[in-house]
Amino acid sequence: MHDHIQAEISGVITVTGTSTIKGADKEAGFWNKIKKFFISLFKSKKKIEENSNIKSLIYNKDINKESDAIWQNDNELFSYLKKYGVTQTYIQLDSLSKQGFGDCHQTAHKAGRMSLDIFGTSALKECSLVCHSGCYHGITEAYFKKIGSDNLKENLNNICTDTINKPFHYLNCVHGIGHGLLSWTNYEVPEALEMCDLLSENKGACFTGIFMENVITKAVGEGADEHVTKYKSDDPQFPCTIVNVKYKNSCYFYQTSRMIQIFGADFKKVAEECLKVSEKYRDQCFKSMGRDISGLYRLTPERSVQECNNSPKKYRHLCLNGAVQDALWDISGSDNSIKFCTLLTDATEKKLCYETIINRLNLITNKQDEKDYFCSKVEKEFETQCRL
């Protein structure tokens, strides 16, 4: 259960025993226990607030700007955010990721949650696209936990307004709303999807946030975790098989991330599974496969291209499209995404590849020096198109 106004109050009600209560007195006693349970939750509000989020963390004012302790130590991550701000924190997390510490997305989620506590929603203005937009995801996740679902429609349509002049950032912010809503609804996918429908635009970005959050969360029975979901199973196409038709495209755009949890990095098996998908949604599945390939081999474009060869020829261009888009998630991916396109020998695939990254370039940056650098690196036959 959770309280829709005081969102920090939540709990799990477990029904034990199988006996049937008979008689009005016993029944009244049962409901009195339930009433007392909820009253105790409200009385404990102050205690919950005192022990939640950043209030239990220790600030280290001497933390170094080059600290790598922020990767695993919550106190150090909090201290770094407070001392150096949101923008620099994500620069450092991205740097550590590139130094070999691993994928920074989950740490970026955590930093986002802390950022909301420290700076409020103004932190969204400082978010960047690095660590696959974990900043947006974490902030919005914490936002809904704090405010609950009172005035939900208004809040959903206002939370990302600070990013509306940056289209790609805005989409990632809305995508982050999906992450936040699924966490807020205790991982009830259908309920969270219906909440996304309250958005006036870009609902699809919210849907994909829900499905991504579902994939990266542990399934029931996989061990202790902060969150668990019942919408994962050994069926590599679940929950896409059970959601409403209007959500299926968005579901399959993240479903191969679940498939590689089941199959490992065996993209031949993933491709075989995508071929089993209804033809209406198959394109999304192969784009998703490309994104996941790049996620594993982002720094080695040769391997990404090679793995897309597991796709049937009819769908290979979709896999390549998904992979190169992921490679150019932010401007730091310029060189790798261009190298990706230069590796393609099929003229049609190469043309589609350059069209994809040139369009992407104009979404992720409005800085002329970054655009000039990018366009100076593309193959000569595409440079004019790039500079338009």
Fold and architecture overview:
The chain has helices at 24-43, 45-50, 74-101, 105-119, 130-147, 152-158, 167-184, 189-196, 203-216, 245-263, 267-276, 279-297, 301-308, 313-327, 334-342, 347-364, 368-377, 380-387; strands spanning 218-219, 228-229. With 388 residues, it is mainly α. Helix 12 runs antiparallel to helix 13. It is 64% helix and 1% strand. The protein has three domains: 1-14 and 26-45, no CATH class; 71-217, no CATH class; 274-388. Strands 1-2 form a two-stranded parallel ribbon.
* Rg value: 23 Å
- Domain tally: 3
Identify the strand order in the major beta sheet: 1-2
Order of helices and strands: HHHHHHHHHEEHHHHHHHHH
Share of helical residues: 55-70%
| Beta-strand share of residues | under 5%
Give the tally of β-strands: 2
List the helices and strands and how they pair.
Elements: H1 24-43, H2 45-50, H3 74-101, H4 105-119, H5 130-147, H6 152-158, H7 167-184, H8 189-196, H9 203-216, E1 218-219, E2 228-229, H10 245-263, H11 267-276, H12 279-297, H13 301-308, H14 313-327, H15 334-342, H16 347-364, H17 368-377, H18 380-387
Parallel strand pairs: 1-2
Helix pairs in contact: 3-4, 4-5, 5-7, 7-8, 7-9, 8-9, 9-10, 10-11, 10-12, 11-12, 12-13, 12-14, 13-14, 13-15, 14-16, 15-16, 17-18
